[in-house]
Design brief:
With about 300 residues, the chain is mainly alpha-helical. The protein has 13 helices and 3 strands, in the order βββααααααααααααα. Strand 1 and strand 2 form a beta hairpin.
Length: about 300
């Protein structure tokens, strides 16, 4: 076995026995920085240069060097960053990146998963490629894409919730949503076809936010199924129905105190008056709703009438 030494500083491969240079211009394949960690046993291996590629951006854009404008010593880097911004990237590319940042921030604010975040970005890019948002309110398209992504991933969010998050009126979100629907369908990609959330989804989420146990959630779902058979709240919105059902079911909890209509309203966004009016309809037929749940008579008698 020859005793060879790779001199990366000079690009030579040298025989340590006789000193002959047996190779020239060799390429250093090691990491392009030094690691100052004392722990060499494991951890992350910083052997890759640059960040991961983003499939939502064109390949050429991801190879750019960005000059930071954060310089505590002089204003030179700020000026260089400004000059690079003028010539280094097209206005459309800047708008797309800014929209991606906004989508990420908004999704993180309400705890949406990364899958939904990436889905919303993908939908927004389709809208950009179709030039649907050109000259229009970008925030409305961002809001509609987030709403669309939530529905596609079966994470139920209402127009009102997305409106509160993005400060875009509900009617505007709905208008843009109707514009986007046929465009996404045109691409023939099932990943962008939305599926509506159910009232049961709202019940599960409200119970979680109110720290109600599984016993309450099961009772609420049973009431919902019975209500669907009887048609008591037919025509009511899913949020109103689910809020009223959770309000009723919470009175049967064995581990937590009943919740007020104000508590329910704070997590559902439904007004207290709407919750109480819907609940009254359920209360009038409570014996039919609860006959298969083996609820003690004492708890039935303790139910509030409004």
């Amino acid at each position: 076995m020859p005793n060879l030494y790779e001199d990366f500083a000079n690009g030579d491969m040298i025989c340590m026995d006789c000193g002959i240079v047996v190779g020239e211009h060799i390429i250093d394949t090691r990491s392009e920085w030094r690691t100052f960690s004392n722990d060499n046993s494991g951890g992350d291996d910083p052997s890759r240069v640059g960040g991961p590629s983003n499939p939502l951006l064109d390949g050429d854009q991801q190879l750019d060097t960005i000059i930071s404008s954060r310089d505590n010593f002089t204003g030179m880097s700020r000026e260089l960053s400004r000059a690079q911004g003028k010539v280094g990237m097209k206005a459309s590319d800047k708008a797309l990146l800014n929209a991606f940042r906004t989508i990420t921030t908004l999704c993180e604010r309400i705890g949406l998963t990364r899958v939904i975040t990436e889905r919303a970005k993908h939908l927004f890019k389709i809208a950009e490629e179709e030039k649907l948002s050109k000259g229009k309110n970008t925030d409305a398209f961002i809001a509609a894409c987030i709403y669309y992504a939530c529905r596609q991933e079966n994470v139920t969010r209402t127009y009102k919730e997305i409106s509160s998050l993005t400060l875009v009126p509900k009617k505007e979100i709905g208008r843009v949503f109707k514009i986007l629907e046929p465009v996404f369908a045109k691409y023939g990609d099932t990943s962008v076809r939305p599926s509506s959330g159910s009232t049961e989804d709202f019940i599960v989420r409200y119970c979680s936010h109110l720290n109600l146990g599984n016993d309450v959630q099961k009772i609420a779902v049973s009431i919902l199924k019975r209500d669907a058979e009887l048609g008591i709240t037919a025509g009511k919105s899913p949020t109103s129905t689910s809020s009223a059902i959770v309000y009723m079911a919470a009175h049967f909890s064995a581990t937590s105190a009943p919740k007020s209509s104000r508590d329910i309203s704070s997590v559902s966004g439904v007004s207290e008056s709407t919750i109480r009016s819907t609940y009254r309809e359920l209360y009038l037929r409570r014996h039919e709703l609860l006959r298969d749940l083996s609820i003690p008579q004492s708890l039935l008698d303790a139910l509030p009438n409004q």
